[in-house]
User: Fold this.
Amino acid sequence: MIDDLKILIPEFPERNDVSENVFQNWISSVGSYQLAAGYSFLFWPPFVQFEQYVFLASNFAEENLREWERGTGNNRQAIEAVINHIHLVDLHMDDPDPSEAQLRHLGRVLRETFEAKLGRDFPDLKFEVVFNDEPDLYHEDYEVTFWQTD
Assistant:
């Protein structure tokens, strides 16, 4: 785990003990409550159910939805997939060079948290949550999205 940690967080202090307190101590010295609050909306996002659709609340606008309905012939899965997608490189515009390892790790975590939150918020619906977890993609191609399968 130490080797993975050095790849994911190169500035993390050298430690032999990777206990929970070590992460908490590091975060407390470099982070902020404002940043933590912002990340909470990323890792446990609010969703909105509108008509037959489910969207990330932050990505939903009715006018945009209506344009995609016209453009896709009302294909609900295609519409949800495009409106709900998040390009991971867009999360930190001022950090122009994330590593592939960082993007893939973040994408895996987001896929799992979206699956858990969608299951909790919409227990009667079924979703496909997708992260293209392949090596050697362009950084812009690492994205997470979801749509209903029924």
Observations:
- The chain is about 45% helix and 15% strand.
- Residues 1-31 form one domain.
